[in-house]
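The protein record quoted in full:
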Amino acid sequence: MRTRRAEPGDQDALDALWRASHPELDRPAPSLAALPGATTAVIATGRSGVNGAVVAAALVAPLHDDPAARRLTVLAASDDAWDALHAALTDRLRAEGVQRRHAVVREDAVLALGRLARAGYAVTSRSWGALLEVGDDLSAFQDAVTAATARGVALRPLVAADAEAAARLHTASRADFPSTPATEADRYGTAEMAELLAGSHAVGAWAGGELVAMTLVLVAQPGDAAETELTLTRADHRGRGLATAVKAEAVLDLVRVGVTRFATGGAQVNAAMLAVNRRLGYVLEPQWLTLTVPAS
């Protein structure tokens, strides 16, 4: 087996390996062209060299909150190819001083879980995903908005001019986010937040002229589910229904332009956010498992 960095022309091979490795998922493989800058994509080919058939692939991503760890996604059509690429990556990461390796898979990923168990991985945390299909009855969303505005809170979409306030709120709240390899939150300065706001639909809750809660929803292609990127409330305003209100207002805004499917998720330990989503009618999917193995 030979390994090399993935190139744009490897996307079809990555897609095929993704489908073979994760038949339980109904979403496409990550786009090589859109991977975060710090994520490395590795391609493994057969013995015939660089032009040989692609037999395995992997994505290697750093973690903001654990610099001594990496998150691995290893894909292969056969157990032998998976084992060989995983062993090669293990040796490489050990040499780089990486102390922990994590993998994140859905609880019904029978093939991937079997491979990870053989390699010594064990479950260390759980997270959840949920979907919402919006019908004709919007009363739950309207009630959540009304309850917030009745307390004097103003809800409105966030725009580029709000980036500084949004970044400040995110920074102040980040230490409270449950952080796992599956749910690790990004860090956003004002410039990054402005870029994020420009490519999404965000709603903020304002009290006394200050931004005290917000949600940010990424909207992809028509028909795809709009996915929540983040939802947060300032510590001194929690427990007042503001997270529910901003999420509800975002749903109402997007329903008006034809979006009816929404996706969200979070760490299992974040019981408050799970309650918010259940209140709005989100239906839980199978859990996501984070599995970990030491590097040595």
Observations:
- DSSP finds eight helices and 13 strands in the chain.
